[in-house]
Specification:
The chain is mainly alpha-helical and 304 residues long. The protein has twelve helices and five strands. It folds into two domains: 30-178; 192-297, no CATH class. Helix content is 38%, strand content 5%.
C-alpha cells in the first residue's frame, strides 16, 4: 500500500513538473535580435498597418480617439467577451505607466512571443499570434516609432476574467497549439504583390483575429480563414472577406484597394462600425501596400 502511494505521489510530482515545463514562457535574448539600427520612419508604417492606435489610443470623452489623439497610447478601452473583460494597457513611452523602460528584447518578446518583461504570459486578446508572423526588424522599427510618441500617465486595471481563463500559466499550452510563424495560406509561385499582401494581412494587419471564427479555446480555425466570425463582444457578425463572400464577390482588387483608401464601396456606401478605424489606418499605407492586400484577398481560398 505504501509503495503504491509513493508511486502515485511520484507520478503526480512528475506530471506537475512536466506541466510546469510545457507551460513555461519562451523568450528570445537580446543577442538573438538582428544587429541593426531601428528606423522610426519605417516603424510609423508598421504602426498604422498594425492598427495599434485602434486599441491603445486613450478614448476621448468616451469616444474613440481621432486625429493627433490617436498617438496618445494610454490605453483604457475595455473588451467584454465570453471569457471576461479584457482591458487595453498603456503602451506609451511613459517609463512607469507605459513601456518606456522596456528594452528592445522586452518589446520583441511581447509582440512575437506574448511574454511580458516580468516573464508572464500575455492573453491572446493582444494579437501576438498574428504579430509572430512579422519580421523582427519590423517589430524593432515599430518600437523606435512608439518611443517618439507622447508619454501618457496612468495605468489601466488588470483584466477581469472567469475561471479557468484567469490562470495565465495555461496560456503556455495555448501557445504550443496556436502560436506559429508559418503563413496561414501557402502559395505556390505567387506574385511578390500577393506575398506582400499575405505578410500584411496575416501579420501586422492581424485581419484574421476578427474575420476568422475560433474554436472553444479561442484559437483561430485556419480552415475557415477570413470566412467571417461572431463579433468578439458577442454583438453582430464580422463578415466573410474571402472570394466567396457575397459582399465582395463582385469587387475587383482595385475596388478593395480604393475601399481601404477612401472608405467607399463600389456601390458608394461608406465603411461603418469598428471597420472605420481599420480603414483609417489602411488609408495611411502606401498605395502599393493597399494593392497588395487586395491582391491577397482575391487569391486566398474561398470560404462559403
Amino acid at each position: 500500500m505504501r509503495r503504491t502511494v509513493r508511486i502515485g505521489a511520484a507520478l503526480a510530482a512528475a506530471l506537475v513538473v512536466a506541466g510546469w515545463w510545457l507551460t513555461r514562457p519562451q523568450t528570445i535574448s537580446a543577442g538573438d535580435l538582428p544587429v541593426r539600427e531601428p528606423d522610426p520612419v519605417a516603424g510609423e508604417a508598421v504602426f498604422w498597418a498594425g492598427g495599434c492606435a485602434s486599441c491603445h489610443a486613450t478614448p476621448v470623452d468616451g469616444e474613440r480617439a481621432r486625429g493627433d489623439a490617436k498617438l496618445r497610447l494610454g490605453g483604457g478601452a475595455e473588451l467584454d467577451t465570453p471569457y471576461g473583460v479584457f482591458r487595453v494597457p498603456n503602451i506609451s513611452p511613459h517609463a512607469a505607466d507605459g513601456i518606456g523602460s522596456w528594452s528592445m528584447s522586452d518589446f520583441v518578446n511581447a509582440m512575437q512571443r506574448g511574454v511580458s518583461p516580468q516573464g508572464r504570459h500575455y492573453y491572446p486578446s493582444f494579437p501576438y499570434a498574428s504579430y509572430a508572423r512579422m519580421s523582427t526588424a519590423d517589430v524593432m522599427d515599430l518600437k523606435a516609432f512608439i518611443d517618439t510618441l507622447p508619454e501618457v500617465e496612468g495605468e489601466t486595471p488588470d483584466h477581469s476574467l472567469d475561471f479557468p481563463w484567469n490562470l495565465r500559466r495555461g496560456i503556455g499550452l495555448w501557445k504550443r497549439r496556436y502560436l506559429s510563424r508559418i503563413p496561414v495560406v501557402q502559395f505556390d509561385g505567387a506574385a511578390a504583390e500577393v506575398l506582400r499582401g499575405a505578410y500584411l494581412v496575416e501579420g501586422a494587419g492581424h485581419c484574421g483575429e476578427c474575420h476568422t471564427p475560433r474554436d472553444r479555446f479561442g484559437g483561430l480555425l485556419a480552415g475557415q480563414w477570413l470566412g467571417g466570425a461572431p463579433a468578439a463582444e458577442g454583438e453582430g457578425k464580422v463578415p466573410n472577406i474571402t472570394p466567396a463572400a457575397k459582399t465582395l464577390s463582385g469587387w475587383s482588387a482595385g475596388d478593395i484597394s480604393y475601399y481601404l483608401e477612401s472608405g467607399f464601396t463600389p456601390e458608394f456606401d461608406t465603411v461603418g462600425g469598428t471597420m472605420v478605424a481599420v480603414q483609417e489606418n489602411m488609408a495611411k499605407l502606401t498605395k502599393a501596400d493597399r494593392d497588395a492586400i487586395a491582391a491577397y484577398l482575391k487569391s486566398i481560398p474561398p470560404v462559403e
